[in-house]
Amino acid sequence: MPTPFSSDRVEFIAHREADGWIEAVAADMAKILNTDIAEHGRARMLLSGGTTPAPVYQALAELDVHWDRVEVSLADERWLSPQDRDSNAHLVRESFLQRAEGAHFDPLVRIGKPLPECVYTANLQAQYSLPPSLVALGMGNDGHTCSLFPGSRDLQRALESTLPYAALDATGCPGSNQWPLRITLTPHGLRACRQRLLLLRGKQKLEVLQHALDSNDVQQYPILAAIDQPGPRLRVHWAD
User: Which of 31, 33, 159, 235 has the most CB within a 10 Å radius?
Assistant: First the structure.
């Protein structure tokens, strides 16, 4: 049986096994995109990196969506070239864009441009694009989401930003590994997304989520920035 979880602050969906989780998340994302395409003619989604969502993106690309009407960008990015194999852009290309023929991709990092200019361009792009139909989020064992790392020197500034994206220096934060410089969605950017999906695997991640909800401390658990927003509740898809 799935691990019990209860909270009125999130919509929690437990899946019994990994394949069912992959299929259900991909179907949920396709349904959200198709609804917005039917209503607005186009849709936009923001994707996260990491190994957890990659099979979901592969499954999503095979579903019946007019990909030529879908704009794709990122929830966050390491300060790396989009061609770098460790970039989120590379993962999205390999797992999704090569299969979703016609989808348009806007990377956050622009080759040859300094970090502040890339953040400026990302915010300008967000300003003149459709509000995102969905954002697919992950969460680290430290409670971070996007690149909002607990303990980072820029966290408070990012949390208080009135722009969708911010630069963040996560030097000294273990979860950032060897890539401390980041571009990340802010709570303001998360708020603009019509639906927020959190893709989780494993009991440890579930325990972290419960600790975050119990703490109400966004500095310690930045995942709360994706939970405590107006509109639809954060939808959590979980499997062990």
Answer: 33
Question: CA nearest 43: which of 113, 116, 128, 129?
Answer: 129
Strand 181-185 to strand 43-47: parallel, antiparallel, or no bridges (unpaired)? unpaired
CB atoms inside a 10 Å sphere around CB 25 = 24
Is the per-residue pLDDT at 233 higher than 80?
yes
Query: What are the distances in angstroms from CA 85 to CA 90, 94, 105, 158?
Result: 6, 10, 17, 26
Place of tokens 């499997």: 239
Q: Compute, in degrees rounded to 10, the torsion defined by CA atoms 92, 94, 96, 102.
A: 100
* Phi/psi of residue 118, nearest 5 degrees: -65, -40
CA atoms within 13 A on the CB side of 43: 25
- If you average pLDDT over residues 191-208, what whole number do you get? 97
* DSSP SS3 for 21: helix
Q: Which amino acid is at 62?
A: E
Distance CA 227, CA 209 (A): 10
Q: What are the Cα distances from residue 131, in Å, to 24, 75, 128, 141, 212?
A: 24, 13, 9, 29, 27
The distance from CA 77 to its chain's CA centroid, rounded to whole angstroms, is 10
Place of tokens 């694009």: 129
